[in-house]
Amino acid sequence: MNQEERPRYLRIADELAARIAKGELREGDKLPSIPQLTRDYGVSANTAQAVIRTLVSDGLAVAKSGSGTYVRKRAQVRQLVRSWNRNARGGSPFAGEMATQGRIGSWDYDSRTAQAPAEVRERLGLDEPSGDEPDVVRTDYVFRGDGEPVMLSTAWEPLAITRGTPIVLPEDGPHAGQGVVERMRQIGINVTHAAEAVSARPATAGEARQLDIAAGAILLTITRTYYADTQPVETAHILIPTDQYQVVYGTSIWDEPPPAD
Amino acid sequence: MNQEERPRYLRIADELAARIAKGELREGDKLPSIPQLTRDYGVSANTAQAVIRTLVSDGLAVAKSGSGTYVRKRAQVRQLVRSWNRNARGGSPFAGEMATQGRIGSWDYDSRTAQAPAEVRERLGLDEPSGDEPDVVRTDYVFRGDGEPVMLSTAWEPLAITRGTPIVLPEDGPHAGQGVVERMRQIGINVTHAAEAVSARPATAGEARQLDIAAGAILLTITRTYYADTQPVETAHILIPTDQYQVVYGTSIWDEPPPAD
DNA sequence: TCGAATTTGTGCGTATGTATC
DNA sequence: GGATACATACGCACAAATTCG
């Protein structure tokens, strides 16, 4: 039946993608609507819909319900500097970062006690869970710059460390929003170092919605853990869309320890 | 009609995703089939199909036509530590990194003089090019662990710095393969700091072939620049497949080395 | 302000192809 | 070959959002 091996909706999507790559369709241009595609290619509305869905999930287009589907505009790439020097006293690290870009940082959050998932449990060095007993405070963040979402984060802090202290809720109390290093210092814990594991993957539908990006757009994933000596005191997942932000790590060479053994 | 605001297929996908996260469904387990979903949730096959499609495109499951849909197995992810402490004297940084994993590091390279592209030109602070005059040494690398490609890199060094010195070719002469910091030290240049800008994008066909990965797999892209005070002395593009490697940045709040593991 | 037209999003039912077991 | 299951594709309907007269 099919002369070509590739499915119909993919071939149509390819053709539109090629027209975008060629510059025939430019950023912001309107793509053919679903009824248009059914006429142009003699396919059903359902198949035309699959074409749209493919282009959107490949990040080439954005669909606006009730309006149309448009060639995606690529945002200007900004930089997020991840430097520990910046985590100085007072003020939020994120707000500081945004301020250097001349933008206003803000964030929503939602804290609750919970039982840590296995992966987090391992990173924090927690024992086996006992029943349904919560053992961490989990906080979900949406960080914004000038009101636009720029970063998602989920942080876990062991209740074994913070239970009964004034900083048990990261975004509540006198030291709210000042960052982990400063907050831990308030309860006598000196955060000595941190590690960030960086990877990347496509955004899930839910993440795409929260970040207001195309489904399937690529996210940098950072897994950060703070340590007080050998004791992990906080770990977090951080999600950053790569089409808007680069993450910059910088450091000095002359701080290096004596020659390796 | 909908009591809930989220579409039916997303709610079902969420439920399955939650069961995966909770460990109720483990890697390799079979998910409910489409007919099963239609019975369990009273939806049409079309909607059940949308559930599967969502889980697959979110990377949680793999669909095997004729067999079933299974919870995705995550390949074992190795870590590449990008720590400046490790750039100690003697030996190659990459070989050292591989050695800590019990693997043998090796690399192919190809050096030539060239005129730097605009983007590199900017990062190195080079003047406008004069005619066809080459102004950098460009070196392309394929790094391997136990013979398998794990990383691609392209490095540029200004001829204005290295011309006429014994280290003009990075992989030739007495200090070959010892890393930029050590090589520059041989000609009296003290590399003081570095910056790495991290992002990610799908692999091109050529990159996929060189790295022996699927076309379109996601690559971490690192743009690294070494500085001697304010003078850039080398810059490089580094490409790392995310399904095999994570990149770990560690540093200390008090200038201590990062945690052992 | 209202309503009609357009467009995407979701969902139903059905049929066929094709891969796996 | 037969049963099962995913993939593609048709037809239809309605909801929700947007646009525009």
Question: Can you walk through the features of this model?
Answer:
The structure is a homodimer of 261-residue chains. The first copy, chain A, is an alpha+beta fold. Chain A folds into 2 domains: 3-71, Winged helix-like DNA-binding domain superfamily/Winged helix DNA-binding domain (Arc Repressor Mutant, subunit A), CATH 1.10.10.10; 78-250, 3-Layer(aba) Sandwich (Chorismate lyase). Helices cover 26% and strands 32% of the residues of chain A. Chain A is built from 8 helices and 10 strands. Chain A has helices at residues 8-21, 34-41, 45-57, 93-100, 118-124, 159-162, 180-186, 205-211, and strands at residues 61-64, 68-71, 78-81, 105-114, 136-145, 148-158, 193-202, 218-228, 231-241, 245-252. Chain A has a 6-stranded antiparallel sheet with strand order 4-5-6-9-8-7, sandwiched between helices. Chain A has a two-stranded antiparallel sheet with strand order 1-2. A two-stranded parallel ribbon of chain A has the order 3-10. In chain A, strand 1 (61-64) and strand 2 (68-71) form a beta hairpin. In chain A, helix 1 crosses helix 3 and helix 2 packs across helix 3. The first copy, chain A, is elongated and about 70 Å long. Chain A starts with 7 loop residues before the first helix and ends in a 9-residue tail after the last strand. The interface between A and B is large, with 46 and 51 residues. Strand 10 (245-252) of chain A pairs antiparallel with strand 7 of chain B. Chain B binds a DNA duplex (21 and 21 nucleotides) through residues 1-2, 7-9, 33-35, 43-47, 49-50, 52-53, 63-69.
